[in-house]
Amino acid sequence: MKSLLIRGGTVVNADREQRADVLCVNGVIAEVGEQLSAPLGATLIEAGGQYVMPGGIDPHTHMNFPFMGTRTVDDFYSGTAAGLAGGTTSIIDFVIPDPQQPLMDAYRQWRQWAEVAASDYSFHVAITWWGESVHADMGTLVREEGVNSFKHFMAYKNAIMCDDETLVNSFRRALALGAMPTVHAENGELVFLLQQEMKTQGITGPEGHPLSRPPAVEAEAAQRAIAIADVLNVPIYVVHVSSAETAEAIARARARGQRVYGEVLAGHLVVDDSVYRDPSFEFAAAHVMSPPFRAKGHQEALWRHLQAGALQTTATDHCTFCAAQKAAGRLDFSKIPNGTGGVEERMAVLWDAGVNSGRLTPSEFVSVTSANAAKLFNLYPRKGCVAKGADADLVVWDPAGTKTFSAASQHSKGDFNIFEGRTVTGVPSHTISQGTVVFAQGELRAEAGAGRYIKRPAFGPQFTALGRKAALAAPVAVAR
Ligand code: URP
Ligand code: ZN
Ligand code: ZN
Ligand code: ZN
């Protein structure tokens, strides 16, 4: 028997805070209560003055991702280890088949790549093309492999972009399977056109990246996906919402009663688009990710929508490329591999800029860093909750601890940090994964291969509600 007792802290769940000890036995939370006694041989953590919260869930990462002619520098080990150092104990990554590649082949490939993960992980699967085998494989993935969400890239023309026909077919299939469709919302045709126009005008540097992907390009795609989902009566989750316009589109749809969900990245909440006009190519290129960082003003709008509940989850889109890889686009910004890091920093950025500023309560912090993702992707309360029977994935949070982010000291293998120089107050003192202390007072003890693939059952509660609504609104023929 392997046990761990976390004593004297304040347990924070999405619904409340309480003074309680947490006892973990064999990887599961055995008890949450006052004055718990430690079993013989138990590991002890004294958490006085600290918060004990569910470990973070990052619902959007790309480890070991072959993309734009290269591959991310963080594999599933280094990426999840970095997450653990920052209090994130689960990631949901993406299987992204090439167009025409059988889904199951790509799925098996990603499962193999992920075997070195240090924390628990799960997969969304991208639908990059349509055909009978895709229809069939979606069923196999949901019923046999525990996949309950499918991703659709509305951008990246001539690569992984899917057209409306694929969106419609896939959304409908996802609904029948009880799986959540998700979208990367950017109009890929407009991006392609604007990229050519920028280059014709002699704009070849990274400043061309945001100029070819303005907020309306994102909002158009988001509104189209939301409208398609509305017609098909399917829920929809918009990943990496970066602009006020897109957040407003989600808020409007929700106000109409539609089941639309939005994710915001830690980076989009605190970084603005001035980075692309930096005279250093390396600095500007290191920030190239899609959708791009936005003009000042959008960050505040995203915070407000997160606070108001139009956006429910926070993620990172952790997708790291080093300077040598980014240099592929030195003469043409559209060839800079898209992606930035953040899996290690997300929780502390959210605490520092969210809780310390009064935008979020500690319980709301738990909602947006773990509980809501767990609910939407049907992992709750196994993950995202400090309660008896849940996985012992926890973070002991020191609200007085400080840290200054830097590429020089990060655990990610990337050579850049988009939060470089930012000092935060509120950091993890301990991270616990499956009941084992994997990070303690700055010391990382991640173990390659210790992470497990987590199956996620289909038909989360929102599907029952949608089904009832659809049944009541079923069309009726006129008897003549
Ligand atoms: O620029 C980004 N976000 N790279 C990763 C792929 C994606 O679009 O999520
Ligand atoms: Zn994306
Ligand atoms: Zn992504
Ligand atoms: Zn490199």
UniProtKB/TrEMBL annotation:
It comes from the Bacteria. InterPro entries: Amidohydro-rel, Hydantoinase/dihydroPyrase, Metal-dep_hydrolase_composite, Metal_Hydrolase, Metallo-dep_Hydrolases_sf. GO terms for molecular function: dihydropyrimidinase activity. Its EC number is 3.5.2.2. Keywords: Hydrolase, Metal-binding. Signal peptide: none annotated. The keyword Transcription does not apply. It is an enzyme of class 3 (hydrolase). Its cofactor is Zn(2+). Residues 51-438 form the Amidohydrolase-related domain. NCBIfam families: D-hydantoinase. Belongs to the metallo-dependent hydrolases superfamily. Hydantoinase/dihydropyrimidinase family. This is Dihydropyrimidinase. It comes from Ideonella oryzae. The lineage of its organism: Bacteria, Pseudomonadati, Pseudomonadota, Betaproteobacteria, Burkholderiales. The gene is hydA.
